[in-house]
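Risk mitigation, structural track. In case the binding assays with 4-nitrophenyl beta-D-glucopyranoside fail to produce interpretable data, a predicted complex structure has been prepared as a fallback.
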Amino acid sequence: MLNSCLFLGALLLLGFGEEAKSVAPKNQIRALFPDNFRWGFATASYQIEGGWDADGKGENIWDRFTHTPGNIADNSTGDVACDSYHNYARDVEMLKDIGADYYRFSLSWSRILPNGTLAVVSEAGIAYYNNLINLLIANNIEPMITLYHWDLPQPLQDIGGWPNEALIPHFENFARLAYQRFGDRVKLWITFNEAFVTCMHGYGYGKHAPGISGEDTEPYKCAHTILKSHARAYRMYYDEFFQAQNGRVGITIDSGWYAPLDPNNPSDVEAAERAVRFKHGWFAWPVFYGHYPDEMRIFVDKKSEEEGLDQSRLPEFDRYWETQVKGSWDFLGLNHYTTELCTYKVGEYSGWSQDQDVGFSRDPTWPESASDWLRSVPWGFGNLLRWIKRNYGNPLVYVTENGWSDSDAVGLEDDLRVEYYTNYTQSMLQAITEDRCDVRSYTAWSLMDNFEWARGYSERFGVHWVNFTDPARPRIPKKSAAFLKQLFADNGYPGPDVNSSAESKHWKILSFTYFILIKFMLG
Ligand code: PNW
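Fallback model:
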């Protein structure tokens, strides 16, 4: 009797051993996303299209910036890029093959309006986007359009660019034309992609086009114009198009997650909270509440006063603009890539990066990508989603970008990208299923390797490899493409109880063993 029990016990243990191996890697959630959850890919016009002067396209700030030597790491340009202008059908083919529900792409303003204004409308430019939109729809892929992904027409920079509020009516005109010409088929509109990067990298650090350095005031003015332009484009859609077109308009705001360096140190905890408010809150707070976050107001006002300025470097919305900007969203677009650690550190000069009195660092154990700013810290994603839920009343979120970079050497076996996508989507899944964050879609950056701004082609973000030395710009799926294809098809991570036949067999053997064991013990 004892012997047989021991024998069966051993069998059971064996069973458990096998069980431990057969389930997913440690800490993986086996669950599906909600039924209506949607999956897609993102790109941006300047990064993929090429055809920089094709068919009457006008010059934009990235054409000017890349044609000026010394601005781009590998001295490359987006003149040809992935040549999607001539080959968009291949892009749609890839999207279809991978099972994307939608495709997020951006409009090149100067392809449609060569001078940036309504003075000249390029029908060739409009035809390009019409062809792309029609082909997407024919393949059951929904278009999601970003109106502005950083490629401002050069003539609008020549009058001062985004720090000049004269751009507001120009953006409004461009947006109206886009709604008029594409809005019968396009129902998802993003006004701006990552205004933070436009303002800080373009007008603060000078690392992006138009290459202007002036951190103290220019980025704040830039952000102010962009928020007003966004509000105009949002309100105008409701006044003039919504009834006929029934689409949705939002803005995409980027943010990392900011965690305290020492969670037991209250000043680090405060610094981290301030960092999220200075980063995400700079743009989202006005969109939800009509004004900048209180922390920004207090810190920048105080520093401006100490500098002897007669007004704050952080502008204010008057009553009219407050009501325009407040509530100008149907969904919140979120681009998230990474996490940083924060501590209290007094700023050294005036400007956004110093105004917040935060020192930033990274944990050396976090896996490194090819981009110096990007480490894999999956838990940060879930924390940011929960922070958004808490601070803005659980808004409808579309994740409009998330992705990983590697170098040329990695090639098609992009295991770290697969790991990144696995861990980040797991973190998002947990935020949705356990914390009820209202996230309804996930967009991977990017469909294919492309022109990575100041880094040129030296950092690859694609799930398709693009050969940039071949004039035909062939694309080859990487391992990560196969991974995402499966994830999209499964709509998550099906568990043993969902559809694994091998595992259900295993459970039958286990329960049979239990049955015999109990029978023996009862005699
Ligand atoms: C985003 N950072 O940019 C953009 O929307 C894409 O066009 C870009 O290719 C992608 O992310 C990858 O970089 C970012 O320094 C650029 O933290 C820089 C940062 C974040 C996002």
